[in-house]
Specification:
This protein has 144 residues and is an alpha/beta fold. It folds into two domains: 31 residues; 111 residues, Hypothetical Protein Ychn, Chain: A (3-Layer(aba) Sandwich). Helix content is 49%, strand content 19%. It is built from five helices and five strands. The chain has a five-stranded parallel β-sheet with strand order 4-3-2-1-5. The longest helix is centred in the N-terminal third of the chain and has 27 residues.
């Protein structure tokens, strides 16, 4: 038979364990997760549906929506210097909080002058490597 001191100790220990478990559960619920995205694309024309997708993802869950990056690489990289083609996409991207990035390797390979790239477009040395680096940071990735 348990004496009164053992009962008190048992009840106190049970309450402590219960409060620790509830505290851990509350912390787990309060941990905020952010969803970040990167899309690697070879076609400028794909910018519109990509940006529209970013807007839709943000509207579905604005609380967890983080960064959205589009990396442009490949043969069509020269098109990013055409302000007539790019201005609409740049404005759409700005409104949707989408960052457009140009692959420096592609710029070099296809002889595109980096000084002609609009200021709103970030240039990275290697777009494919940049994509992998973002994936390592937990970004969801899609290549088109």
């Amino acid at each position: 038979m348990l004496n009164i001191n053992h009962m008190k100790t048992l009840i106190i220990n049970s309450l402590i364990i219960l409060s620790v478990l509830l505290s851990i559960q509350t912390q787990a619920q309060n941990t905020k997760t952010t969803d970040n995205y990167v899309v690697l694309s070879k076609k400028i024309a794909q910018l519109k549906p990509i940006i529209l997708s970013a807007k839709a993802l943000k509207s579905e869950n604005e609380a967890s929506f983080g960064q959205f990056v589009v990396v442009i690489c490949g043969k069509e990289i020269g098109d990013i210097t055409d302000r007539e083609k790019m201005d609409g996409f740049i404005e759409m991207a700005k409104e949707a909080n989408v960052q457009i990035v140009a692959c420096g390797f592609s710029l070099s390979k296809f002889k595109v002058d980096p000084s002609q790239v609009p200021d709103e477009i970030k240039i990275v040395e290697n777009g494919i490597l940049y994509n992998f680096q973002l994936q390592k940071k937990g970004y969801y990735s899609l290549s088109l």
